[in-house]
Amino acid sequence: MFAGLPELGISNGEDLKETLTNCTEPLKAIDQFQMENGILLPTLQSALPFLDLHGTPRLEFHQSVFDELREKLMERVATIAEGKEEDRYMKLEELLEKSFPLVKMPSIQPIVMRVLKHLPKVPEKKLKQVMADKELYKVCAVEVKRQIWQDNQALFGDEVSPLLKQYIVEKEAALFSSDLSILHNFFSPSPKTRRQGEVVLKLTQMIGKNVKLYDMVLQFLRTLFLRTRNVHYCTLRAELLMSLHDLDISEICSVDPCHKFSWCLDACIREKFVDAKRARELQGFLDGVKKGQEQVLGDLSMILCDPFACNTLVLSTVRNLQELLSQDALPRDSPDLLLLLRMLSLGQGAWDMIDSQVFKEPRMDLEVVTRFLPAMMSIVVDDYTFTVEQKLPSEEKTSLTYPNTLPETFSRYIQENRVACEIGLYYVLHIAKQRNKNALQRLLPALVDTYNDMAFGDIFLHLLTGHLTLLSDEFGSEEFCSAVFDNFLLTSFSSKENVHRHCLRLLNHLHQKVLVSYMETLMKTLEPPKQSSESVKELCTLLKEKLEASKKSPQEPEEAPSMDLGLHPVSVPSTPSTPTTPL
């Protein structure tokens, strides 16, 4: 407990023990020991007997003096560190030399730690001693740990790894949230709110202003993204940079070539739309990548691969297509649309670029613009034609039925092209948001076969299940249930557990709306096999309990809320060749 005192020439318990062992008059020896090691203030000696008369133990007195002096010294250390004197750090180093031998002493340790915290460069020998002692390492300030971490990547990795795992767990938990809503979904929190998350704040604090640690974290994120293909690491890469931006850490922001691009994109994500002004800014950054600096494209692609960025780009694409429709303009004639597709393409190609280390923008398939998007428009025209037909007087109606097939080009592109598939999936969400049952029943079967099974990814299924709550009353029809479950979700639930979970999430929310006979069949189909995870079994048990409870006390059906997501329909002139329903 008192290790280190002899080094400073101060007697400790062992010295007192030796003195008492070898002396002939113990009381005199104790008096002498107190005189030599007490507070060396002549006027104090005559005052101490008064404390004895009041029954105050000497230990209590000395402890209170010690505590007071320690606080004063710690305040003085902070004052010296914050001062302007040129020799302030030399003074602190001298104090460190004197106090460090007592670092294991609990009463002195806070002083030593305070000195270490305020030294911008702790002597290497002291850093090694702190690092080698688990207890000291645990209690030292993050400012000291940064100096240790910057030369010990493995140790820093051990500290960061649990935080990165926690971040992924939190993101995945949000995607499987039991709360199904179109207004409060995975993409609802603003960028600034997301940056207040525990992991982002901890990482930001751990990095401080240290560029070397920031680079290490980015390298960890790239490595994990390559190893797992998990796009949430891309989100964290963007959030971390913008968190440092919020704190005005110019030492890092000024050296990250992605800073201004991320800042501009962050504003777009906040608005969930890329306007013309910001589109020009973003294009300027992409066009400004100079020869020899192409490696920055790897980081830019990772930032664009962030699901929040991707969500904004695709929503903007759909809105842009609505505007083109109202203007009778072609997709190929819109520079803003072409830029959105370019950024989507760059984001979707992030993994390939970082894996291959070939830093070159992926070449965009122009047929997405010239063939796929027009095919998607033709689906809107079909829908419009059918709607108009239904409104005609009975004598003018033809025997037109709602189309049940899709243009071959549309189906082929959502199978073969990443960008086309992403746009196609968001178009399905858009149709669901409009409560367009016919179009949805027509489109869902096509999603069974999409590029890299994107339609069975957690992000799309999270959004789709939320959007389907708008059509809750339609689940009373076997035809609609069959379109959603038999023709889409149930085609892969047995091989993809995440699809199984999303099916159960949806049913937990809508079970009272689903046709009773169909619900019974679904329950048999969705019964979890033995090897299923606990989360699937828990969801299934919860659903069974709800069904039992609803049999005993049927509840009144809830009305689907009216929603406005900010994707405002565009008015279109009513001519036979132009659809009036928004895209």
Task: Give the structure's gist in a few sentences.
With 583 residues, the protein is mainly α. 64% of the residues lie in helices and 0% in strands.
Percent of residues in helices comes to: 55-70%
Overall number of structural domains: 3
Q: Which overall shape is indicated by the principal axes computed on the Cα atoms? A: elongated
Number of DSSP E strands: 0
Order of helices and strands: HHHHHHHHHHHHHHHHHHHHHHHHHHHHHH
Mean pLDDT: 88
Query: Structural class of the helices, strands and pairings?
Result: mainly alpha
In quaternary terms, these chains amount to single chain
The fraction of residues in strands falls at: under 5%
The biggest beta sheet reads:
none
Q: Which runs of at least 5 residues are low in confidence (pLDDT < 50)?
A: 563-583
For the CA atoms, what is the radius of gyration?
A: 34 Å
End-to-end separation: 75 Å
Pfam families: COBRA1 (PF06209)
InterPro entries: COBRA1
GO biological process, one term: negative regulation of transcription elongation by RNA polymerase II
Organism: Carassius auratus
